[in-house]
Recover the amino acids of this structure.
């Protein structure tokens, strides 16, 4: 399902605000007036520490809804990693008459009562990126999260093997937020690969996916294990990898051991080229956002397309669309991230990275 990341033209018209960090978008005001009152689709994202939500998920989702349903309105809210704030945002959207909820939950277990409120109003719900547990709903759209963890674990193991250090020291594992079910999947996948093959010195579940907390965890690990005994870091995403790298720099590391990541953040891609981070997981966010938009519009029209997969959330088998992740090291950036126009070469290749970009075939 790999498609080029196309530029988004025509800024959406923003007017009004819902609870918290929220906005209402009318995809095409002139067509909306001609076509009459449209349906309202509410999109909720969990946080802004990870750059993807505001830079990619939201604009891609809004653009696709605008293409498929010009007279639909979009209520958008970012919860800033605050579960109470997200609850208020969802309740506000229900009050404002949302016809479909697309929800990336801050706390995937705590939002079941909100989904139940929507069900009582006969409003369909799509779990976006993070599986919501404890209740049945219409769809789940995400990536194969166990596979993400396996790719991270395999990349780290391959790097340690190439360095001849797999059995020479210990690794540190920085997992994501314990309130995000995806974190448990990433963790499971990494352990599937690494258990019995490397020694795990310290392991953390990082609240809020916070880079600052990851930095503190890494500092604790360095103190406990010893700087020279850490041979690799399994970080579940790029933001936490940045925290781990900051801690290691402060501890006096001249050369970084292999460090994994996820999300292909611009800073992470640059760190990979510069040799500070070993790899990232590239997620085709366009495919995820557009599939969710397609489903939301279909549900708004009273349709329910068939899903190719099912994922059990502990209560029900949720019809699901699971997309494929891609592991990216320096030699694969040109053929994935740049080829798909996720970033332009000019965005990635600063003057300091000119030689590294040339070596990686990025032009």
């Amino acid at each position: 399902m790999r498609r080029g990341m196309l530029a988004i033209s025509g800024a959406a018209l923003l007017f009004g605000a819902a609870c918290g960090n929220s906005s209402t978008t009318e995809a095409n005001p002139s067509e909306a007036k001609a076509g009459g009152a449209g349906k309202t689709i509410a999109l909720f994202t969990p946080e802004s520490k990870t750059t993807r939500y505001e830079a990619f998920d939201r604009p891609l989702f809004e653009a696709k809804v605008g293409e498929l349903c010009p007279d639909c309105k979009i209520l958008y809210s970012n919860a800033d990693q605050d579960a109470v704030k997200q609850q208020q945002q969802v309740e506000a959207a229900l009050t404002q008459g949302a016809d479909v909820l697309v929800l990336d939950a801050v706390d995937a277990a705590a939002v079941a009562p909100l989904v139940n409120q929507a069900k009582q109003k006969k409003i369909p719900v799509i779990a976006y990126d993070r599986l919501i547990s404890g209740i049945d709903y219409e769809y789940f759209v995400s990536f194969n999260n166990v596979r993400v963890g396996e790719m991270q674990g395999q990349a780290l193991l391959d790097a340690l093997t190439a360095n001849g250090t797999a059995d020479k020291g210990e690794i540190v594992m920085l997992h994501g937020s314990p309130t995000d079910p995806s974190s448990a999947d990433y963790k499971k996948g990494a352990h599937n690969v690494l258990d019995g093959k490397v020694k795990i010195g310290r392991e953390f579940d990082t609240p809020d996916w916070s880079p600052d907390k990851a930095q503190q965890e890494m500092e604790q690990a360095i103190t406990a294990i010893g700087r020279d005994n850490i041979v690799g870091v399994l970080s579940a995403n790029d933001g936490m990898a940045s925290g781990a790298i900051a801690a290691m720099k402060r501890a006096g590391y001249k050369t970084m051991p292999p460090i994994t990541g996820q999300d292909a953040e611009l800073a992470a891609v640059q760190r990979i080229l510069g040799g500070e981070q070993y790899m990232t997981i590239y997620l085709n966010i366009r495919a995820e956002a557009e599939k969710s938009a397609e489903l939301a519009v279909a549900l708004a029209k009273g349709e329910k397309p068939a899903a190719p997969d099912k994922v059990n959330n502990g209560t029900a088998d949720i019809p699901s669309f699971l997309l494929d992740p891609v592991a990216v090291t320096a030699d694969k950036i040109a053929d994935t991230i740049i080829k798909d126009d996720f970033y332009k070469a000019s965005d990635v290749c600063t003057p300091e990275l000119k030689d590294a970009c040339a070596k990686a075939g990025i032009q």
The domain at 13-143+284-323 is CATH 3.40.50.2300 (Rossmann fold). The longest strand covers residues 199-205.
